[in-house]
Design goal:
This protein is mainly beta. It is built from one helix and ten strands; from the N terminus they run αββββββββββ. An eight-stranded antiparallel β-barrel has the order 1-2-3-5-7-8-9-10. The protein is globular.
């Protein structure tokens, strides 16, 4: 929870900075699913548990500094818990920070992203662990990842856009799951804050 609040505050600060500089920034919320090789496809270095399946929610924001070039940040998480090995509840969360190129012509455009991030898998326990600041009922397994994304942007009304999208995650040392590769497909709805809005 604390990490989500920090990320939200960082995004809000960046967006307000962009507004002060007169640059375009976008915010979007979406839904999709994650696919990954099945448990039966696991190799010797990976356990027979698939990361894929389920509904994923995501939030993203970007700032354009020069023409169609900028930076983008995104978080995607599984909406409900899954069962690891049929026993332990878990929830994957994916964070990424990217360079973005988004050419646009009229009411349609493309969006291409590439960057780095992290996978945080929360394994839930039937008890709480407390420290000086808070109590949690999960332990996390974190892994570095590389991210590539492509999307189509359509502005049907004013500055509101609909964005079908695809994302490829290359997750380092993802030994808990059947593969180090995962793909997320989805659609987001967002708004572009443009200079002079």
């Amino acid at each position: 929870m604390r990490r989500s609040v920090r990320i939200g505050l960082i995004c809000a600060t960046l967006l307000l900075s962009a507004a002060a500089l007169g640059q375009q920034f976008d915010a979007a919320f979406g839904v999709g699913t994650l696919t990954s090789p099945s448990a039966s496809e696991a190799s010797g270095e990976h356990l027979p548990q698939s990361l894929g399946g389920g509904t994923y929610l995501n939030f993203s924001g970007d700032i354009f500094f020069k023409h169609q070039l900028g930076i983008q940040g995104e978080a995607a998480w599984r909406a409900s818990q899954n069962l690891y090995a049929g026993v332990q509840p878990f929830r994957p969360i994916l964070f990424d920070f990217n360079a973005i190129y988004a050419p646009q012509r009229g009411s349609i455009g493309g969006e291409f992203t590439a960057g780095i991030g992290a996978e945080s898998v929360r394994f839930y326990q039937p008890f709480f662990t407390c420290d000086f600041v808070s109590c949690t009922d999960y332990s996390s397994s974190n892994h570095f990842l590389g991210h590539f994304g492509a999307a189509f942007r359509w502005y049907p009304y004013g500055n509101f856009f609909i964005r079908p999208e695809a994302h490829l995650y290359l997750i380092n040392n993802n030994f808990e799951f059947s593969s180090s590769r995962a793909t997320r497909f989805g659609v987001s709805i967002g708004y572009s804050f443009k200079p002079g809005f």
